[in-house]
Amino acid sequence: MRMILSYAFFKGDIMTKKQKKMLWRIITAAVLMVALHFAVKAFGEKVHEPLWFLLYLIPYLTVGYDILLKAGKGIRNKQVFDENFLMAVATIGAIAIALINKSGDYTEAIAVMLFYQVGELFQSYAVGKSRKNISALMDIRPDYANVERDGELEQVDPDEVEIGTVIVVKPGEKIPIDGVVVEGVSTLDTSALTGESVPREVRPEDEVISGCINLSGLLRLRTTKEFGESTVSKILDMVENATSLKSRSEAFISRFARVYTPAVCISALALAVLPPLFLLLRGQAPGWGDWIYRALTFLVISCPCALVISIPLSFFAGIGGASREGVLVKGSNYLEALSKVQTVAFDKTGTMTKGVFEVNGIHHSSMDNDGLLELAAHAELYSTHPIALSIRRAWLDGAVFRDDGDPAEKADTSGRTIDTDRVSDVKEIGGNGITALVDGRLVACGNTKLMDSLGIAYIDCHELGTIVHVAVDGAYAGHLLISDIIKPTAKEAIKALHAAGVTKTVMLTGDAKKVGEAVAEEIGIDKVKAELLPGDKVAAVEELLAKKPERSVLAFVGDGINDAPVLTRADVGIAMGALGSDAAIEAADVVLMDDDPKKISLAIRIAKKCMRIVYENIWFAIGVKLICLVLGALGIANMWLAIFADVGVMVLAVLNAIRALFTKNLR
Known about the structure:
This protein is about 50% helix and about 15% strand. It contains 21 helices and 22 strands. It is elongated and about 115 Å long.
């Protein structure tokens, strides 16, 4: 007995106390039932009937007392029609028939309850196992943070660490809170967040996020967020709440069960009463016992456990499998929507390109190239746009450009800073650029729209890239050539999307038309809409939504920060290239925890596999039950077939549902 308990369901140590208790009850009831069955065969005539009845009640109540209690509570709370009610009526009815017939053998009634509990135990174990797998995959919550006090490290709860505190992360420990490296060089394991096994190197001034594992060197970090607002907390909260948003399939099954269960109860009652009455009216023997037995069999067969349990479990496993690959899906409704994606619209910067801009040239400058770059860097002082960051970085890093505008050797950067006192009256014009007073001179930095709005004649650039035109005191001063790099997996990602069933890909970018078209052509995107303001992107998505095929889904993929309105408007918003971004987690329906665009097609394939499993379970469960219901009504099926139609189908459906957790073959 101990060995059975130890190795039940592969490993006894992963069974809960409740599951072990149920296993003991099942084994005890089964042993008593078998012993009594043989006792009836051997001593049936020598023992009076009431004694057999009382003896059989022991295994029956041992294995089924909780079902009877739940059925009673359901009746008391006016929620009668559930699986507990069906099992209680069916088994009590079978015992009543055995009493009336004075057979002395109540094995069938106990067996129904016994195998039903086996199915429930298996279902409980399967759900628990999938939860453990997901918990293991998302086991990124840190238990403590090391705070240095009086020269010694003290382990404190991460919730108690304030913003700006310096914490120490030793090799092998999880980073507990988002922060910036102030001392130390190391590599981080980000696999729990991104699904990628390649370590990430970090140095002083690099931002790091909670949930990563420090692999090598000792790191000192200055925290930039409270624990409740850090990446690990937001991710865990999102995964834990993912199953609260139900898909259409789940909602259908819930509605189906509410109608189906009362319907089969009424049908079973009609099967028990109407045929005998009809036979009685014709002057024939009604055969009440036979028809009641058929009705009880009908009830056992009709139990909708397989559907009610396996469909939510399929989505739960699908969400868990996606999490394992670094794809966080906020709910099963979004997983179902992903399976129907046929149109994908992309942002360009930070999505299909790396979003790491560099100033690669200064052309047609009317002043010293270094002076032009200095003015532009100061004008862009307060902008957070990646292009502005690249201009400031070029100035601070001492980038120098020859008279022909191409890069030269770096200048001496000692003492080079951006002085905020030199800058005033900064005005950012969304989608166009910036104007500011630098040393009392009006500097305008932006695209051709900004130059047109200011009435300044500009010179087009003959090279490919993002062009930032600069004007000083109303006169054209030249332009900066800034280049972005296409992600190495972008082209492969588009091919994978088409292979996954996506029929149309569109790029929506605020960049120049020729830059957008060049990027789209290189990676294979079907259509480009360029020079779009944030509001124009929403309008473009509205247009795509109006033209998409009926019952298909449009997904928009952006960086999750400046594309929040578009992410919200699309059928499915997918944020990528924003590891740890609050805006990504808040605005998007699906978050890719690294910047690999190939993960989009993987997410779609995971969703399609999950939906295939859902429909397999629906058709299998309904099909088998309908066949068995007909056989039960005709008197061909007995209680043993009823057990298979209920418990057997449920076990098979649950096993099938767990397949959604495994995604290795989809990569």
